[in-house]
C-alpha cells in the first residue's frame, strides 16, 4: 500500500495527500495527487472512527488543513518546474 506524501492535522481534522501513478491512453505514465479530508472521533464503544462529514465548529480547522495542503502542493509543483 502507498504511503501518503504529506499529512496535515489540526485537532481531530486531518488532510492527507496521496500520489498515484496513472497511465493515459498513449501508455504514458503521469502522477496524480489527491487530498483526503477526514474527522476522527471515538464511537460509543471507544473505538476510533473516521468521517468525511464535519460539524460547524470543525470548519475553521478544515479550512486550515485545506490551505496547508494547497500551499504544500503549489510549492511542491513550483519546485518541480524549476
Write up this protein:
The protein has 82 residues and is of the alpha+beta class. Helix content is 28%, strand content 41%. It has one helix and four strands. Strands 1-2-3-4 form a four-stranded antiparallel β-sheet, covered by helices on one side. The protein is globular and about 50 Å long.
Question: In a nutshell, what does this entry contain?
Answer:
Helix content is 28%, strand content 41%. The chain is built from 1 helix and 4 strands; from the N terminus they run ββββα.
Proportion of β residues?
35-45%
> Helical content, roughly?
25-40%
Structural shape: globular
Major sheet summary line = 4 strands, antiparallel
Give helix and strand order, one letter per element, not per position. Answer: EEEEH
CA radius of gyration is 16 Å
By DSSP (H or I, 4+ residues per run), the number of helices equals 1
Instruction: Count the beta strands.
Output: 4
What is the mean pLDDT? 92
As residue ranges, the low-confidence spans are none
Termini separation comes to 30 Å
Q: Structural class of the helices, strands and pairings?
A: alpha+beta
Q: Biggest sheet: strands side by side, in what order?
A: 1-2-3-4
Amino acid at each position: 500500500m502507498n504511503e501518503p506524501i504529506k499529512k496535515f492535522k489540526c485537532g481531530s481534522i486531518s488532510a492527507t495527500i496521496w500520489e498515484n501513478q496513472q497511465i493515459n491512453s498513449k501508455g504514458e505514465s503521469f502522477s496524480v495527487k489527491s487530498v483526503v479530508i477526514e474527522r476522527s472521533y471515538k464511537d460509543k464503544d471507544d473505538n476510533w472512527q473516521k468521517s468525511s462529514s464535519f460539524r460547524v465548529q470543525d470548519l475553521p480547522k478544515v479550512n486550515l488543513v485545506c490551505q496547508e495542503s494547497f500551499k504544500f502542493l503549489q510549492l511542491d509543483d513550483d519546485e518541480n518546474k524549476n
